[in-house]
Amino acid sequence: MDTTKLQKTILGEKIKSVQFYRMNVPKLYKERIFGFIWLERGLRVRIENGSYYLINQEDKKEDAILKTSNDYKKIKRMISRWFAHYRNNGICQHVSYWRARAVDGMHNVKLFKLSGISFKDNKSNFLKLAS
């Protein structure tokens, strides 16, 4: 994703790239957000189940980002923007469009069955159906 629209810095480091995804957590029976934010100097932020961890690849250290820090709020804002962009990108709209078309078709078939029009009896019944 293009990082020009996102916050430019977190924890004093420039953002290289981000990746977020949703996954079902079996123990919680809920969908949670996971992902990574890659920063300069080999740092990255790991998002796991609502918690954010700063990982230093050189030392293999992992530190939690506190909820009271401004960076925690920036990360939450980035995640909300990511999924708002994902939702508005036409994916959900596309599914709802075809679902609505299927419901309309089923409704039309039901109306046709209830109308009692038979094409075997008289071909002029087509004119009744078309009107």
What would you note in describing this structure?
With 131 residues, this protein is of the alpha+beta class. The protein is 40% helix and 31% strand. It has two helices and six strands, in the order E-E-E-E-E-E-H-H. The chain has helices at residues 70-115, 125-130; strands spanning 9-10, 13-25, 30-39, 43-48, 51-56, 61-64. The protein has a six-stranded antiparallel β-sheet with strand order 1-2-3-4-5-6, covered by helices on one side. Strand 2 and strand 3 form a beta hairpin. The longest helix is centred in the C-terminal third of the chain and has 46 residues, at 70-115. It starts with 8 loop residues before the first strand and ends with a helix.
Structural class: alpha+beta
Report low-confidence residues grouped into runs of 5 or more.
none
Count of DSSP H/I helices: 2
Strand percent estimate: 25-35%
**Terminal Cα separation, in Å?**
51 Å
**Radius of gyration, rounded?**
26 Å
The geometry reads as elongated
Helix content: 25-40%
Spatial sequence of strands, sheet with the most strands: 1-2-3-4-5-6
Main pleated sheet: 6 strands, antiparallel
Task: Provide mean pLDDT, rounded.
Answer: 76
- Summarize the helix and strand pattern as letters: EEEEEEHH
How many strands in all? 6
